[in-house]
Write a structure and sequence with these properties.
By secondary structure, the chain is an alpha+beta fold. The chain is built from 4 helices and 11 strands.
Length: 174
């Protein structure tokens, strides 16, 4: 049996009996075996509908005056910060719409509720089709690592190894 659990919360693989994890970003657990098959770009996006009523930001500081769709980090109860080039961050203080699910965050932006910074896998097709517009492209952060990881478990079950290798291959292909 293969189970799939989706969560934005860092999981303890051993305590939660998880064989394999995939995380976009940086891992806090240094005890895992980690491979990085690819990286993930992030885009600051808005819908054309939003841009008809609100001009795009000229710089990162302009974001404070714009309607924001924010992703809630449940553990501390704060919005996830947005990262930009030159190690600049934007910390949303208030938001027009808040969710703890990236897919809902994307849907809110598509509906014209505000601007959001989202991972490429969520928005690149929408940017290509014109449903979303990427803004402040020159200020985009460096791509984040995509981490595929597992515990130091020995012996390592063959079924887990096969899935791990398959996922690594698929993620490496882009």
């Amino acid at each position: 049996t293969l189970e799939l659990h989706l969560s934005n919360i860092h999981s303890d693989l051993v305590d939660e009996k998880i064989d394999i994890g995939i995380r976009i970003g940086f891992l806090h657990d240094q005890t895992c075996i980690v491979r990085q098959p690819c990286t993930m770009p992030f885009h600051l996006v808005a819908s054309p509908k939003m841009l008809e009523h609100m001009p795009p930001p000229a710089n990162v500081d302009d974001l404070a005056r714009l309607p924001i769709v924010a992703l809630l980090n449940r553990k501390p109860g704060r919005y996830w910060p947005w990262e930009f080039s030159q190690k600049r961050n934007f910390y949303p203080k208030s938001a027009a719409f808040v969710t703890d699910t990236p897919d809902i965050e994307r849907k809110a932006v598509l509906a014209g509720l505000g601007f959001a910074q989202l991972a490429g896998y969520l928005v690149e097709d929408h940017i290509a089709s014109g449903e979303l517009v990427s803004v402040l492209r020159d200020d985009a952060p460096p791509p984040w690592p995509v981490n595929l990881y597992h515990t130091h478990q020995t012996p390592y079950p063959m079924r887990v190894r096969l899935v791990f290798d398959y996922l690594f291959k698929k993620l490496s292909q882009g």
